[in-house]
Amino acid sequence: MDFTPSARATELTEAVRAFMQAEIEPVEEQYHRDLAAADDPWTPLPVVAELQAKAREQGLWNLFLPAGHGDAYAEKYGTTGGTGLSNVDYAPIAELTGRSFLAPHVFNCNAPDTGNMEVLLRYGSPEQQREWLEPLLRADIRSAFCMTEPDVASSDATNMAATAVVDGDEMVINGRKWWSTGVGHPDCAILIFMGLTAPDADRHSQHSMVLVPRDAPGVKVERLLSTMGTQDPPHGHGEVSFTDVRVPLANVLAGPGRAFEIAQGRLGPGRVHHCMRLIGLAEAALELACRRALDRTAFGKPLANLGGNRERIADARIKINQARLLVQHAAWLLDTQGPLGAFSAVSEIKVAVPTMAQEVIDMAMQLHGGGGLSEDLPLAGAWTNARALRLADGPDEVHRGVAARLELMKYGAKR
Amino acid sequence: MDFTPSARATELTEAVRAFMQAEIEPVEEQYHRDLAAADDPWTPLPVVAELQAKAREQGLWNLFLPAGHGDAYAEKYGTTGGTGLSNVDYAPIAELTGRSFLAPHVFNCNAPDTGNMEVLLRYGSPEQQREWLEPLLRADIRSAFCMTEPDVASSDATNMAATAVVDGDEMVINGRKWWSTGVGHPDCAILIFMGLTAPDADRHSQHSMVLVPRDAPGVKVERLLSTMGTQDPPHGHGEVSFTDVRVPLANVLAGPGRAFEIAQGRLGPGRVHHCMRLIGLAEAALELACRRALDRTAFGKPLANLGGNRERIADARIKINQARLLVQHAAWLLDTQGPLGAFSAVSEIKVAVPTMAQEVIDMAMQLHGGGGLSEDLPLAGAWTNARALRLADGPDEVHRGVAARLELMKYGAKR
Amino acid sequence: MDFTPSARATELTEAVRAFMQAEIEPVEEQYHRDLAAADDPWTPLPVVAELQAKAREQGLWNLFLPAGHGDAYAEKYGTTGGTGLSNVDYAPIAELTGRSFLAPHVFNCNAPDTGNMEVLLRYGSPEQQREWLEPLLRADIRSAFCMTEPDVASSDATNMAATAVVDGDEMVINGRKWWSTGVGHPDCAILIFMGLTAPDADRHSQHSMVLVPRDAPGVKVERLLSTMGTQDPPHGHGEVSFTDVRVPLANVLAGPGRAFEIAQGRLGPGRVHHCMRLIGLAEAALELACRRALDRTAFGKPLANLGGNRERIADARIKINQARLLVQHAAWLLDTQGPLGAFSAVSEIKVAVPTMAQEVIDMAMQLHGGGGLSEDLPLAGAWTNARALRLADGPDEVHRGVAARLELMKYGAKR
Amino acid sequence: MDFTPSARATELTEAVRAFMQAEIEPVEEQYHRDLAAADDPWTPLPVVAELQAKAREQGLWNLFLPAGHGDAYAEKYGTTGGTGLSNVDYAPIAELTGRSFLAPHVFNCNAPDTGNMEVLLRYGSPEQQREWLEPLLRADIRSAFCMTEPDVASSDATNMAATAVVDGDEMVINGRKWWSTGVGHPDCAILIFMGLTAPDADRHSQHSMVLVPRDAPGVKVERLLSTMGTQDPPHGHGEVSFTDVRVPLANVLAGPGRAFEIAQGRLGPGRVHHCMRLIGLAEAALELACRRALDRTAFGKPLANLGGNRERIADARIKINQARLLVQHAAWLLDTQGPLGAFSAVSEIKVAVPTMAQEVIDMAMQLHGGGGLSEDLPLAGAWTNARALRLADGPDEVHRGVAARLELMKYGAKR
C-alpha cells in the first residue's frame, strides 16, 4: 500500500505548483472581476487561452492521461513522457489544481472533458479518436456529457428514458437531458449522449453511448441551469433536447448496449479527480481560516484564541487528512486492482469528500464573518461547489448503497 | 407559559394565509423569472406595489407593530386595531410570510425596515417620526441599517470605528459600513448609522445612532455585495462610505452615546421575526421534500421508501417543532419579561434556528437531486439565506457566548 | 397552547423540590456506597422505605396519577386532592425526580410501576384493582411488565411470539420475555404479560395482556441482565420464562386480544415521564459541568475559558430547553387531544430526548476528565441510562418511522 | 508514503490471526462468564497464563518491541527475529488483538505494560532493565503508570503536584495519583511514578519519572476506581497514595527532571497501539452489525433493508477506513520522522479514533436492540472502553489544541 508518487510525478507536481503561483494566482481575482463585468460572460476571456499556451509549452498539459493508455497521445499532446501517470501519481496534481477555479482549464484537466477524453481513449475507434479526441487533447474544442434526465430519478441510471434507436446505419436520438456541463461554452463541439437502445435486453445492456456533434440538427440547448443562483459561465450546465437527431452508427462508442460498461470505467478516475480537487479546495479554505484567525482581532484577542476556533481548525486538519488518505487509497486500488477492486472505495470517497469539503469551507466562511459570504473571497463559490458535488456523479445516498451492499456481501448477502 | 395567540391574531394569521394563497403564490414564480430577465433588476417590478396596495386595503399591513407602542400609528397606518400584536401573536404570521420571498415586502413586514421603524417608534422624536417613520409605515420610502464595518470584527460591536462626532449643532460622520441591507433599493431614503462619538466614555456609551438621509452629501454606495453569488436585487446589501457627512444634531436617535441601548431593544423582536420566517422556510422545504418523496420513483420504489429518507423526514419534523417552540418561548419571554428577561433566549434562537433551517433545507435539496440546486425550486435560495443568517445579526459564536455567560453566572461567574 | 401548570401542581413541585433537598440529596451518595458494599444488593436498603413513609406522610405520593381517572384512588392513596394532575402539571415534577436515582422510588413514581398502575386504573376490573392496584398504590408490592422477547425483533410488537391461549376458564401462558424491569425486586408480586392469543385475528387484535402472579407455577426468572455491565439492583431487568403457566381468565386485562389498545394508552404518559426525568438528569449534568468549568483550572485558566467549553455549555442549554418544550408540548397534546392527537409528538420526544441527554451528559463527563467516568459522580450512570433509553420503549428508528409516516400522510401517503 | 508491512510482519499478523481463532475466540465468552462468577475476580484465571505460554511458544510474544531498540531483548524474550517491528509493521497486529479483551494480555502486548517496557528499553539503566524490564518481558510481573492526579487538571501535565524530592542519594515521594491502570493485578510489582522535583526549573524540566516498587513502604492503593460501573478486574485502575516513600536515586529514569522528555517518547507508539486496537474493536462491531442486519427480521424484512440501516453500515465502513489510514500514516511518520515529525499526527489519531469507535459501536448496539446493551455481546464493554479513551492519554480537547497550534504555526503563530 504505497501512496508515494513517482519521481516524474513529483517533478510535475512541483512544476504545477510553481506555474500556479507564478501565472494563475496573480490573475485569478481579476479574471473573476472581468467575467462578472463582461457584457457576454459566455465568451471566454482571452487570458485562459494565453495561460493554456504557456502551460502546454511548459509541458503541463493533459496530465490526467492515464498510465498504460494513450502513450502515443501522451507523447504527441501531453507531457507525461509517453508513459502516463498513475492515479496515485496524478492525485497530488489534481489536489493542487483544485485550489483554483481556473487551473483545471489552464492545464486541460477539467471535467467533463477529461472523462470524455478518457472514454474516447479507451473505447473510441481510430476514426472517433482522430475526429474528437485529438482536438480535445489540443483544447481546440470542448465537450459535454449528456446522461442525467429531468424526468426520471437519474440516481438509478437504469431509469434513463431518452432513446438511441438503431435505424439502418444510423442512430436516431430523442429525449431530454439536463446538467450537461460544458454545453454553454462556444467551443463545445461534441456531446456524449447516453440513451436507451434495447429495452428488452439485460438491465445493464440496454443503453448506448453515442457521439453527437453539438451542431447536429435536432440538438437544442433549451436553457442554461443555475446552481445556487450561478450559471457558471463560460461553461454552463445545460438542459438539452434531442429531437429526431440522426448520427451514423459509427458514432456509437464501443457498440450498442455498452453504455454501462463505459460509464463504469469512466467514473472511477473521474471521481478521484473530483475528490482530490475538493481536497485542494478545502486546504485553501483552511489556509484562509488560519490566516484570518491570526490576523483578525475581536474582544481583545486574535480570533484563534476565541471560543472553539482552535478546535475547529484542528478538526478541519483531521478531516482533510483523513479524506486525502482515503482518496489516495482509492487511487492506489484503481491502479493496482482496477475499477472492480476499487468499487466500494470510489463510492466511499464520493460520500466522504464533498461533505468534508462543505464542512471545512463552511467553517472558514464563518470565521470570516460577512466577507466569507461575499465575492471578496473564493469561499462562497467553493462552498456551493462542494455542496453540488454531493449530488453530481451520483447522490451520496446511492454511493452509500453501493458501499453497504459490498460490505453486507462479505457476510453472505446477495445484494 | 401560554403560547396561544389572541383571537385577533388568529384571525389575522388566517387572513395572511388566505392572501398568500390567493395573491402571492400564483405570481411568485413569474416574479422571480421576470426579475431574472429584467434589464435593470434594481427597478422594483410593479407587481410588488400592486400587492402592497391590496394587502393594505385588506388590513394586512404593518402587522409587526408591537403591542403597547405606536397605537396611534397602528390605527393610522396598520391594521392591528390600535392595540398592536404581542410577539407571541405575531410569531405565526412571521412564520407564514417566511415561506415566501415576496410576502414580507407585500405586508410591509420586511427586515430591515421593521427594525428601523421599531427604533423610530421607541426612540424617535416626534419630528423624526413625522419625517421618517410615517412614510416608512406607508412604504413610501425604504431604509437601511448601517452598523457592520469591513475593517473591524463587528461581532464585537464595541469595535465599531466609524465616527459620529458632535460639531456645534451638527454631527459629522465618517467611516465605512458594509452589509447595509436595502441600500440598493431606489426608494431607500434614510439610513440609521451607528458611529463612535465618545471614545473615552464607558464601553457601552461610546456610540450613537444617527439618521442620515440617503442623499446627504458624502454618502456613497461603493458597491453592492453579493451573498453566495447573488446581489438580492432590488434591495441589495451595500458597502457605503461616509465622508464628512453633516447632519443636524436633531438627527441623533435618543441622544449621543445611546446606540447600544437602542440596538438592544431593536434586536430582540427582529431576531424573533427572522427566526420565525426561517421556520416557515423550513416548513416549506419539508413540504416539498415530502411531496417529492411520494411522487418520485427510483429503484422501483417511491423515494419515501428508500434508505434513510423517512428517518430524515422524521428528524426534520422534530427539529422544526423544537425550533418553533424555542422561538415561541423567546417571544413569550419578550412579551412578559422584556429584553433583559429574554436575553439568553433570544441568543439561543439565533444559534438554533438558522442551523436547523440550513439542515432541513439541505435535506430537501438532496431529495430533489439536481433540480434542488437549480432555479426551478426555491430551495437553493432558501439554503443560502439560512446560511447567511448564521452570520447576520451576530455570528453563532457570539450568541453562544451570551448564552454560556448567562448560564455560568447562575453559578457565580462574573462574566 | 398553554404549558402553565396549575397552582396545585406548582405547589407540589415546590414541595417535591424541598423534599429532595432536605431528605434525598443528603443520603443519596451514601445509598449508592452502601448498595455497592452490600452483601446482597437485591435486598432493598431500609432507607428507601423510610423515605417513602415520609414522602407519603407529606402528601408527595403517587403524583403521577392522571387527571380524570382514579379520583377515588387519588383521594385514598395519593395526594393530588382527588383530582389528579394533568400531564402538563406532572411534567415539572417528573423532571425534578429525574435528577436523582432514588427519588422516583421514594415518591412511588417509578417505572414500570407507574405504567402498570395506570393500566390497572384504566383497564382493570374492580377485582383486579382491589387485588393489585391498591397494594401498588401503597407500595406494598412491586410489579414488572413482560413484553419484549429475546427471539424476535420486539421493535415490531406484532412479532411477539409468546402465547396466552384460552383453555376453558383459564389462560395458558408459554414463552420467554426479557428486559422485564423490576422483576429482581423481592417485593415484585405481579407481572403484566403480553402474549399471542388469536394468531388469525386482525394484526392489532391478536395479543392479550394478562396479570400473572410472580409466584405462579411455571414462572422462572432465568437470569438478571446487565446494562453496560450493571444489573441495577435491587430492581433488575430479568429474562423470564413462562412454562404452562395457568391463570384464571379473569386475569386478562380488558379482555382477550386487546393488548395493543392497552399498550397504546399506557405508553404515551410513560414516555412523557421518561423524557421529563431525562431532562432533569441532563439539567443536573449541566449544573455539574458549569460548576466544574468555574472551579477547575488548567493551563492557567478556569476550564470555562478554555477552548470550546463555553460553546458546549451554550449548546447544552439550547438542547435542553428545546427538548423540554417538545415534551411539554407532547404533554399538552396528551391532555387536550388524547393519545391519537399526541401520536407523533410522543414518538418525537422519544427520539429527541434520550439522544439529547446522552450528548449533554457526555459533555459533562468530558469536562470532568477521569472523574467523570468514575463512581465519584453520577454522570457515568446517567450516561448509560440515557443510552439505554434510546432502545427501551421502542428504538429510535421505530419512533422515527411513526413520525415520518404521520408526516407523509399529510400529503396523501397511505402509510 | 508506504504503509505496506514487511514480509515478516505479514507472517506474524497471519499467525496472530490464526492463534486468535484457534485459541482465544473459543474460550473468551467462558472467560468472561467465569470472571463474573468468580469469588475473587482479582485473582487472574489460569487460562490466561496457559494461553500466554502457548503464545510465547509459538513466537507470538512481545511483538510490540520497536525496531532498532532492544534487539538483544527481542532475540531473548520476543519473537521478532532480533530486529523488531516498525510501527507500520505492528499496526495490523495491534488491530487484530484489539478485537478481543484477552488477546493483548495473551501476547504480552497490553497497556500499560507495553509503554512501561518501552520506557525501560529506551531510558532504563542496565540495572533497571535487568531488575524490571526482563521480568516484564517474560510476563513474570506486571506494572502500572502513575501520572494523573485527582486534585489537578492533569490534561495539563505541567500541573502535576505530587513530589519526588532528592534527599541525599534517595528520592522521597509524596502525593496522590489515580487512574493507575494495572495496579489491581496481584503480579503488579513496579510503578512508574511522575512527580515534581524542581519547581523552579524550566516548565518542561521540573518533573522526574521514578521506579517505585509496588511494595515500597508508604505506597497504598486507596481504592480501585470504576469506569462506567466496572472495575476491570483483574487489572483495575487504582487511586494510589504515596506517603514519604523512599527509593534510591538510581531508581530515577534517565535522571531527575526528564519526565517530559520520556513521556513524549513513550506516548507516540502507545497511542498508535491504542488507536489500532480500537479500530479492531470497531471492525468487530461492524461485523456483528452486518450479521445481525442480515439475520434478524422485523416488519417482514431483514434489518438490512429497513430505514437507514444500510446507510449507517456504509458510514461505519467509511469512518473505519479513514481512521485506519490516519493511524497507519501516523505510524509511518513515527517510523520515518520520529516523535517530533509525528507530533500533530499522533494527536490527530487520538482525537479521531476513539470518537469513531464510539460511534460505530453505538450503531452496532442500536442494531442489536436490548441485547446490544447486555453481557450477551461484547458491544457494551467495547463502547464504554472507546468512550474512556476519549479521556485516557489526554482528553480530545488537549489533542485538538496540539493539532491547532501546529497548524497555526505554519502561518506564523508563536503558539
TrEMBL record, chains A, B, C, D:
Keywords for this protein: FAD, Flavoprotein, Oxidoreductase
One Pfam family per UniProt: Acyl-CoA_dh_M
Acyl-CoA dehydrogenase/oxidase C-terminal domain boundaries: 260-405
Entry cofactors: FAD
Domain of life: Bacteria
SUPFAM superfamilies, per the entry: Acyl-CoA dehydrogenase C-terminal domain-like, Acyl-CoA dehydrogenase NM domain-like
Annotated ranges, domain Acyl-CoA dehydrogenase/oxidase N-terminal: 10-138
Gene3D superfamilies, per database record: Acyl-CoA dehydrogenase/oxidase, N-terminal domain (1.10.540.10), Butyryl-CoA Dehydrogenase, subunit A, domain 2 (2.40.110.10), Butyryl-CoA Dehydrogenase, subunit A, domain 3 (1.20.140.10)
Keyword Flavoprotein: yes
Subunit note: Homodimer.
Record protein name field: Acyl-CoA dehydrogenase
